[in-house]
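Let's study a protein:

___
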Amino acid sequence: MQVYLVGGAVRDRLLGLRVKDRDWVVVGATPEQMIDAGFRPVGKDFPVFLHPDSAEEYALARTERKSGKGYTGFEFFASPEVTLEEDLRRRDLTINAIAEDSEGSLIDPYGGRQDLDARLLRHVSPAFREDPLRVLRTARFAARFADLGFQIADETLALMRKISQSDELDHLTPERVWQEFERALGTRSPIVFIETLNAAHACKKLLRELCELDTDTACSATRQLTDASGTPEQQFALLLSLATRNSAPDRAEQQIRDLCLRLRAPNRYRDLALQLCHWHESLSRFERLAAEQKLRLIKQLDLLRRPERLAQLRLCVQALNGADGPVAPSLDGLLEQMRALEPRQLMAEGFSGKELGQELERRQLTICAEA
């Protein structure tokens, strides 16, 4: 039995990046031997085990054969006879097909170290085109490593286009498309993910609402948001607002809903995108709004109970406008004054029932007007 560190842990260490997770490949072992050694089986489609102490994943070396459509259409074969080189050959990119033994020596049969030095994303073998998920994964790696100068090899991009021309992308589940998109939103260059899908002729099939983005504007806006420690939710809202900015308001909101429904995006992503789409112009010119408009914005966004929404939206509006100064600077003071209005105090003054609500709103309006 031989154990090797593989994949992202080796790649990221060679790039000088922080290693988050470690994955291992075991050569020359059977499932029974792994269980006898205290490993806990977790894989259904192929033998994967959790280490009894570290809980890290250990997978038996395996090969695969295309047997159907989509990224699940594979038959896997694991046995003690499968070599490390055979296991590495089934991986997507050469930079992910480097292994390290217990002595720290690299096993790199497909030139991954050379491609790391050349800043190149290149497929391991022609079998790359059998898995449509690799179009998304390659686009995500392009986004993640854009700041390091990585480019996709021409021959790999050609294979990605062949996948797009087939019906393989149609067999990707919404959950897997969203998973890769969400990971790309957490990189420093999420627009590179969209640009890569466009270059691979896959964007219209997967993220059609984002295909016509002005990439220069989007790149500048997403980078500003990244520099301000923006979250994936904020990047998503920003991209959707940029993509729908020339649509009528109702149409823009419907496009956002359609995309979120199709990808089964979490509600928090959908809600923030809709809020930014609907309210970013009002927030941009908040100081010039009438008192009634200010109060309506505060109530519709529920800012008295959900102040975190203001912080989220502010960064997005700043990025949309390319602004350096604060958005709606008077809004914090308004919210503080409104929170100081105690219904109990109004009740002590003799207000109750419907009149209590009316008086509370009147005083809130007064605060907005005086601001």
Notes: The chain has four domains: 1-118, 121-206, 223-331, 341-371.
